[in-house]
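I am writing to request your help with a piece of structural work I have in hand. I set the record out below, with my sincere thanks for your time.
___
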Amino acid sequence: MKSVLHYTSETCYHGAMKQRNPFIIHGYEGPKNFCDRIVETEKLNAAIENGRDVTLLAERRIGKTGLIKHYFERLRQEGRRATIYVDIFATSSLFEFTRQFAAAVIGSMNSRLDKAILAATRFFKSFKPEISFDAVTGTPSFSIGLQPRHVETTMKECFDYLGGRGDCVVAIDEFQQIGTYAESGTEALLRSYVQFLPNTRFVFAGSRHHMMTEMFSSAKRPFYNSTQTIQLDRINRDIYYAFAAQRMPKACGLTRKTFDRIYSMFDGVTWYVQAVMNRLYERGTASDRDVSTVVDELLQEKNWEYAALLKTLPPGSVRLLKAIAQEGKARMVTSGKFIATHSLHGASSVQIALKRLLEDELLYETEDGYVVYDRLFGFWLTRLP
C-alpha cells in the first residue's frame, strides 16, 4: 500500500520575521521538520514492543541517528519507556566505551545534573562523577572518573542498574566500532550482559555494513541471530519532494525538476540533499543556477580540507579515487578496461589501493559498484586536472 503523507505548509521570507531554516543538517529538532521514515519508525517500534533487539544498518549520512532520535522523541512523548543514546564512533578501546556508556547511563537518571550525580554516587562504586564548569558560561557538566582497572566492574554496575529500572531502550550508535578494539572479548562481554535484561531493549546501529553483518550473522560471533535487522535506505524521492516543497516558500520557485537534479546529484543521500536545500532556503531562490552556485560554495568551503586529505594518500590511491569519482559508480575496477581507461597501474596495485580506501571509508561499496563515500569529495575530485 502506498503511503500518503500530509505536511503542514509553512511560510518563510527574508527580513526581521524570517523563520528558522527548516532544512536541518545537524542533530534532531523534533518531528515538525523530520521527513518521512514512517515505515522504519513503525518497524523499530514493533520490534521493541515485542521484545526484539534491533540491528539498524545504514550508509553514513542517510539518517540513522535522526531516526533513533525521532523514535526516542516518540517514546518520550508517550512516556512508555526511558531512553539512552550513546555514540561510540570516537572510541578505540573497551575503557573508552565504558566511560561513554556510563556517562550516558548516568545522564538518563535525571534531567537535573545535581540529582543525577547524587544518584550515580549512591549506585556506582567503581568511579565518581567529576563536576566541571564552563569557563565562559559557568554551565556545569560531568565526566566519568574511571580507572582502567575498574572497567569490567563499571560495566557490570551499568547493566545492573539497567536491570533494576523499568522499561528502557538503549541505542548504541556506530556499534561496529567495538570490532576494532584491542580487547578481543568485548563482544562476548557485552552479549553476556545484554541477554539477561528482560526490560531493556537494544538498538545496535552501524554504518559499516560488512562489519555489522559479520557481527550479527556469523555463527562464530556472540551476537549471532540475536536481533532483527532493519536496513535504512534513501528517503523516497516523491515523499522527499513533497516535504521540501511544503517548507520552501512559493516565491523560491522550487520545481520538481530542480529537486530531482539535487536528489540525483547526491544519490538521495539525506545529509547532502538537506545541505543544498538549507542554502537554497537561505538564498530565497531555487533555480538550477542557484543549485550550481550552492554546490560551488560547498566545494569551495571544503577545498582546503580535501586538498590536505589528498596529500596524505599515496599516488595509487589518489588515481583510483579520481577514476571512481569520474565514473560516479564503478564496477570491476581491477579489470583491464577500467585500468586502461583511467591510466591506472596494474590490477594488483589497484587492489591494494582499493583495500586501503575501503578501510579508510573514503570509498563505499554499493550493489551498483564503488562510490566515493563523501559525495562532495567526489565532485571535488572530478574538477581536478
Observations:
- Residues 288-311 form the longest helix (24 residues).
- Residues 1-17 have pLDDT under 50 and may be disordered.
- The radius of gyration is 23 Å.
